[in-house]
Amino acid sequence: MRYADVTVGYRGTRVLTGVDLTLGKGERLVLVGPNGAGKSTLIKSMVGLADVLGGTAVVPRREECGYVPQVGELDASFPVTARQVVLMGRYRRIGWWRPTGPADRQAAREALDRVGLGDQGGRPFGVLSGGQRQRVLLARALAAEPRLLLLDEPFNGIDVVSQETILGVLRAVTEAGTALVLSTHDLALARELADVVCLVNGRQWAAGPPGVTLTAETLSRAYGVPPVPVQT
After folding, report:
1. How would you write the chain as a 3-class SS string?
2. CATH of domain 1-60+147-232
3. What pLDDT digit, counting tens, does each position of 49-79 carry?
4. Could you give the CA distance from residue 13 to residue 7 in angstroms, rounded to a whole number?
């Protein structure tokens, strides 16, 4: 994936400018910034849900990406089981008009197992906890066998068990070669997980290794507040 001087937004309205990023196989990119900074828009631009308004953007084809939105963006009342949600991750591979086959169902079972919910496939998606729903959405993305995995604030409001499960899965899939883009407000998590941190707020303020990017001075400029010591 490569973004060179990219501007992203919606219907001609700019949200985030000056994005310069390169992400290779198995690398982990973490987006950091305040609410409204453009993190979600940047992730959505990688799957065609937001517009690239300028610059050069090179990303895998949509069917080669796995996207996990924020839990709050979903309608939990939709009458589907956890297994059916995960099977949706296969549709871009097989086509929306074709029925799922044994290989697709096996991929869904394996994805649910990977996120620790192999025994929950028959339960309605809406009755699961927030953390369980987020894990089901991650399983849906994994079932697509993506080259690029995109997660938008995956740890907001979820339990510790789900967070640790998700982190374990993310480490495993990136070690196997899948590239990762993840947004978060958690600076400690960004420092622990990222190969590259991209600091945004209306524009890209910095990008590089966590120790270079997450400094008190850089965070102060990006967030528009006086500098405070950064815990390491």
Report:
1. CEEEEEEEEECCEEEEEEEEEECCCCCEEEEECCCCCCHHHHHHHCCCCCEEEEEEEECCCHHHEEEECCHHHCCCCCCCEHHHHHHHHHHHHHCCCCCCCHHHHHHHHHHHHHCCCCCCCCCEHHHCCHHHHHHHHHHHHHHCCCCEEEEECCCCCCCHHHHHHHHHHHHHHHHCCCEEEEEECCHHHHHHHCCEEEEECCEEEEEECHHHHCCHHHHHHHHCCCCCCCCC
2. 3.40.50.300
3. 999 999 999 999 988 999 999 875 667 778 8
4. 10
Q: Which single residue is written with the structure tokens 């600076």?
A: 187
- Residue spans of the domains in the chain: they are 1-60+147-232, 76-145
Whole-model pTM? 0.92
